[in-house]
Amino acid sequence: xxxxxxxxxxxxxxxxxxxxxxxxxxxxxxxxxxxxxxxxxxxxxxxxxxxxxxxxxxxxxxxxxxxxxxxxxxxxxxxxxxxxxxxxxxxxxxxxxxxxxxxxxxxxxxxxx
Length: 113
What we know:
Layout: H1 3-7, H2 10-15, H3 20-44, H4 58-75, H5 81-95, E1 102-103, E2 111-112
Antiparallel strand pairs: 1-2
Helix pairs in contact: 3-4, 3-5
């Protein structure tokens, strides 16, 4: 999931060499990670009941299930976070015409001027 996120460098954004499909995939992956974290937090609110407690592999299975569930939700449109990120990045990339409107130094946050 996070593999595609780490593939994109700041130079790719600035030079507009990034493939729009790849950017869309990264934004979708980000939304999937966000949804997974939300599902994990929601699961913690469910009381642990039962006479025997959880089986040894149940937590691991739930984690895998939640990861796959979050991927499916984000592919189906999710909450729209991935789409909003994608549109925002595309707008910034297309509006960037060599000016300093988008200033990014390697290893630092984006600085909005």
